[in-house]
Amino acid sequence: MSIPSPQYAGLSDDVYKDRVVGRRAPGQEEIVVVEGQRYAVLEHVNNKSTGYQGTIYRREGSGEIVVAHRGTEGVAKDILTDATMVTSRTNPQAADALALTKHALDYAEIAGQRTGHAPEVTVTGHSLGGALAQISAHHYDLKGETFNSYGAASLSYRIPEGGNSVVNHVMASDPVSAASPHFGQVRIYAKPTEMLALSASGYSNSRANFLIPDNPLMAATASLSAHKLGNFLGEHSALTDPNARPLAEKNARMIEEYRSDVNGLRTGTTIVTQGPSGLGQGVVDSIRGPLAPGEPA
């Protein structure tokens, strides 16, 4: 991937804009400028029945194609929407996201027939959109970058945890990205205010911190602002802050403990809400094992 992370973040933000639905005729594409780079809008989808929205962009110059999957607007609504993935282990917008990603691959194939070289197709998204990006990256064996995404590896699509296909940028105290394992690598960024919130909830880097009770719910509630995409945009973006990743590394112990606690809460909630049938399906999926990228269920 040659597209810089700040541009992926910018496209994950731009996809929240309402646009005319449909494919653009050649020469009629809107132009958006992200971090100084021009992108042409090739297609926009808005399925009101599922709530899915997504946009296909073409990077001017290189011709690379990016599919941006949209999350939901507003932190509270975003978290409520992501909560449905916790209870059902499915994403009702996945089919729409896969369909739009297939359109992007079709655009690339047509361009390749014309030029002799098909441009790379990558995916991006924030929160719910990031989960859809992980799902589509796994389904079609694509690369991509996400921001505070809900991890897709806990969903029922037999998506493996880890790998290097997707880079998942997360804020240290963001409860959504902490709730589920990710397809791809996870890069953690931290702000001093996040470390204060975790400390106030009982977390520390001390090996003796088991003596102090942790309160993941208190920490998560105090950290809702960490979920905002704005943490990765503009001049104060964590992506370009030279202190954000070192601060996360310095506090890796407390961050890992908090994120593990949040993941544990999610696991317990999933088991309780799905009941015996859901647990049985989880056992079957575990026995069958994950699918390799590009080998969808």
UniProtKB/TrEMBL annotation:
Gene Ontology biological process: lipid metabolic process
Chain segments carrying region Disordered: 272-297
Kindly list any coiled-coil regions of this protein: none
Q: Which InterPro entries match?
A: AB_hydrolase_fold
Instruction: Write down what this protein is called.
Output: Lipase
